[in-house]
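Supplementary Note 2. Why include the ligand at all?

Several targets in our set were suspected to adopt different conformations when bound, so apo predictions alone were not considered sufficient. For every target with a known small-molecule partner we therefore ran a joint prediction. The input for flavin-adenine dinucleotide is given below.
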Amino acid sequence: MSQEIKKSSKTDLYEHHDYYAIDSLLSEDHLLARDAVRQWVKQEVSPIIEDYANRSACPEHLFKGLAEVGAFGPSLPVEYGGGGMDEMAYGIIMQELERGDSGIRSMASVQGSLVMYPIYRFGNEEQKRKYLPKLGNGDFIGCFGLTEPDHGSNPAGMITNIKDDGDAYILNGAKMWITNSPVADIAVVWAKDEDGIIRGIIVEKDMKGFSAPEIHGKWSLRASVTGELVFEDVRVPKANVLPNVQGLKGPLSCLSKARYGIAWGAVGAALDCYDSALRYSKEREQFGKKLGEFQLTQKKLAEMITEITKAQLLVWRLGTLANQGLATPAQISMAKRNNVAMALEVAREARQMHGGMGITSEYPIMRHMMNLESVVTYEGTHDIHLLITGMDVTGFNAFG
Ligand code: TGC
Ligand code: FAD
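The joint prediction is reproduced in token form.
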């Protein structure tokens, strides 16, 4: 990293809000993990994030720090580069990261849930030993290629393909909107084989015919780097195919893992907006009174903390189910959809409560709000998750 890291002199004043005493339901290990990540975010993320977001630059130096705080694959086994913790700890860590910035949580979600997890779950021992420790300690950065220019919500329609060529496959096609792709050492790519079956394949950055151009001009997730993946007759050794999964359930199981983390993460973004709005309401005066003395302000704050508390309870229960191996994809969809929409609503309301100051980088609100416009779209859009719930309760598929 040659870029100078510009630190803000502002102190991150965030205080946690736990209206229903959910902390008392957590273990000591959960609280220790949470406090360590919160401290790291206050020291390493908050002082620089506005500057990076303003410049639309990715703070790549944070990859190593994320690894050190155990943000990459918290619930994967230690011997495979993970943190050896449970699903609740994974969720809590995502919440703390997204309290700092959704893009920072994205860096961790992709690395842990979309790159390490498929290699751990669907890879062979050799692939696990080769890639997982380096991904876990941040030596390697990974990305996940599912979405294509013409196939977003409907990944089953993908046209990226592999053709048999002796000891290798020839990979052709393109992926779009790929978090971390321009800085990634490896990409877990989903492509159809000659029988039209979706397979997972690990592509390394130096393979001939492979490029990962950056997508510019995003008004959202500006501190997270996004790009394409372009494959032009890339010769990928057969040893790089993930042997233990075939079909769309491969990438969709990774999405379940990542969506779970996002359901938690969104609560973090909402908490940060609420925290800032609450503090501002106690400090700012108009008409000779603190803003917080007006009933309309109290209504907004009361509604925010009510919705945040409901979302906290939803992910706590989901975490309990996940720890028991009982969380269903549809339950995860409900939590992702509800909590991201809740966070977006809280961010929009908080933005207004800060008046003109709410549009500046003096406060984190506008950055969270813009970030959440991506979070509500990626990992399954708001409406796709609604249809998943609809299908689950009726048994009828309304997608096609
Ligand atoms: P469908 O027939 O329903 O399912 C195919 C197979 O997959 C199984 N399955 C799942 N398995 C695990 N977890 C899930 N969430 C699953 N959903 C489905 C299913 O049981 C079936 O298995 P089998 O054994 O019968 O073959 O598939 P469909 O083609 O009808 O699609 C359904 C739909 C629309 C819900 C799915 O395509 C979908 O979720 N679309 C949204 C696409 C999406 O979320 N893309 C995300 C791209 S990655 C990303 O955005 C990363 S952002 C990262 C960051 O920066 O944080
Ligand atoms: P479309 O699928 O074209 O949807 C457009 C609109 O139509 C949406 O509102 C959608 O809800 C609606 N719609 C679609 N189908 C239906 C239907 N059946 N009924 C009703 N409404 C429907 N992908 C990856 O693979 N890896 C990544 O790392 C990754 N990172 C991303 C990072 C960012 C910043 C962004 C913005 C996206 C990222 N994505 C990634 C892609 C993301 O998952 C897709 O953008 C998302 O799945 C939606 O696909 P789409 O953009 O093609 O929209």
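The chain has a mean pLDDT of 97. The radius of gyration is 21 Å. Comparable summaries for the other entries are listed in the accompanying table.
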